[in-house]
Amino acid sequence: MNLIQSVLMGIVQGLSEFLPVSSSAHLVFTSNFYKVFKNIPIEEQSTQEVFLDIMLHLGTLIAVLIFFRKDVWEICKALFTALKTRDFSEKNAKLGLYIIAGTVVTIALALPFNEIANHLVFHPALVGGLLIITGIVLFLSEYLSKKRENQSDKMNWKQAIIIGLAQGLAVLPGFSRSGWTIAAGLFTGLDRQTAARYSFLLSIPIILGASMVYPLVKIDIAEAISYNWIAIIAGTIVSGIVGYLCIKYFMKFISKFSLNIFGYYCVIMGIFTLVFFNIFK
Fold first, then answer.
1. Which of 20, 152, 196, 253 has the lowest CB atom count within 10 Å?
2. Closest to 17 measured CA to CA, from 205, 198, 179, 258
3. Which of 70, 75, 67 lies closest to 97 in space, CA to CA?
4. 176, 25 contact by CB (below 8 A)
């Protein structure tokens, strides 16, 4: 892994983590395109590459925390107060509980699929097929949301659990985390901005947990010393900067425009990668 590859993957991660196009799929595609052109077997993946993926997600996590810093602070403060008073009726306290519930559901569903997700890293053509499904889900969510007469900015337990399930399925590369969670929000009657905001806030515990747990469990310290840390740090910084800008402009975009453009992108990109990686196996 070199600096150019790391920075390129940082850009890809920053763009695709918050756009409904599957960051994990694009990291798989970028890494495997690079391997194809460098004549490196797709089946080979070093622990350094896996660690870079984690660090790139950490970069976008920092972007979310900075952009939604006021929301995160208000939610944490409301939860702390609610724990003392045992009154969770306040809006932000409820939202905090919904995020906790959604996270628990996500973990419960994601764990059984984790081994499959790890296997798919070496099968980019299959990931392309899952990306096509994501495109179809985006089309359906837009179609059904437009048929609804009323969309709400108020959440409930049912919505929190359904969106958590959607995030759990998105452990599979090709199933966009933001795409599936926003689509689930639209399916259940949330308005577009509320669905997007909740999707981004819900990502915080999961990315934070993965960023902390994986290095502790999987990374050998002696081996980590030999990593290209300049490339890893550069990629992480780039993913954070690009991710922040992406959140800023996507929140404006989704309040005015349809998700269908991302649906078309997912279908086209999915078909392209299916063809490409079936040719260059």
1. 152
2. 179
3. 75
4. yes
Please, which residues have CB within 8 angstroms of residue 120's CB and are 6 or more apart in sequence?
28, 126, 127, 130, 172, 173, 174
Q: Which amino acid is at 82?
A: A
Question: Could you give the CA distance from residue 20 to residue 49 in angstroms, rounded to a whole number?
Answer: 23
Structure tokens at 232: 């890893």
Helix boundaries (H) for the chain: 3-16, 23-37, 47-67, 69-85, 91-120, 124-147, 157-169, 177-187, 192-218, 221-224, 229-254, 260-279
Residue 180, amino acid:
W
Residue 190 β-bridge partners: 152
Q: Would the CA dihedral through 155, 160, 162, 167 be positive or negative?
A: positive
- Please report the pLDDT score of residue 79 as a whole number: 94
Q: How far apart are CA 118 and CA 91, in angstroms?
A: 38
List, for residues 175-186, the tens digit of each pLDDT value.
999 999 999 999
- Supply φ then ψ for residue 191, to 5 degrees: -75, 170
What residues contact 147, with CB distance under 8 A and at least 6 apart? none
Q: What's residue 72's pLDDT?
A: 95
Question: How big is the CA angle at 44 (ends 43 and 48), to the nearest 5 degrees?
Answer: 140
Torsional sign, CA 142, 147, 153, 157: negative
What domain range is 113 assigned to?
3-279
Identity of the amino acid at 95: L
Domain count within the chain: 1
Q: What count of other Cβ atoms lies within 10 Å of the Cβ of residue 165?
A: 19
Which parts of the chain have pLDDT scores under 70? 1, 38-46, 149-150, 214-220, 280-281
